[in-house]
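PDZ domain-containing protein: structure, please.
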Amino acid sequence: GPTGYEDFIQTDASINPGNSGGPLINLNGEVIGINSLIVSASRGSEGLGFSIPSNMVKTISESLIKHGKVVRGYLGVNIQSITPELIQGLKLERNFKGVIITNILSDSPASRAGFEQGDIIIFYDGKKTESSEQLRNFVAATRPGRLVKVKVLRDNDELEISVKIGDLEKIEKQAGAGKENDLLGLTVEKVTPEIARNLGLRKAAGVIVTDIQQESVAARVGINNGDIIFRVGNREVNDTEEFSSLISEAEKEGSVMLLLRDGRSGRVGYIIVPLK
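Here you go.
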């Protein structure tokens, strides 16, 4: 299934269980993608398939060969694609494309480079940015430590900002080892002061989601990597052990209410999660 970094090519080529991972070839005999998944009720091909683009495969394979792992860049911002409503509200040109910064994480590459909340990113490293997903992939594919020029729109003026891209793995490792919760189908880690600082939080509290199992309870209710859970029911969560204990206690009730912070938007709210 889809994961956090994706930029699929949609294809009607026949993809069935067992042949995912094979090449997607154009009419010139060139490999343009790797077949990855299908949308089907029967698990057989119904003409709606998706392939990972070859340029993304090339970037990942080069990273694996050179480093033995996938190395991803880190900017340290929360972002949102420019929508028709934002175009109207910000009085932008019709059909304007770009990505607006909704939050800048403290002590991040973006904060050190001088980005501001409300900046609209229109070019990243010479490439036009038209959606938050596209920008996320651009940043992830950038080698940590590289200096990148980013063009932004600020108060109707175009500015060029140079930013030294950080290492996403170092940020993710600051939390230490995670603890799996099989009932919800996710892994959480304690929010440390370092994580809180990098996420722009006033204090270290709760647990942060670092992994979601496919087709799990957590995935079905829309919990994502980077979300922070502050409360289970009416009780605060201080560490991973306490989180697991509170979820186990709630199982007999059939559902549980979680107070969480959306890792992408920064919004905090309650959700109801079924446990049966």
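Notes: The helical segments are 54-67, 84-89, 109-113, 132-140, 168-173, 193-198, 217-220, 240-250.
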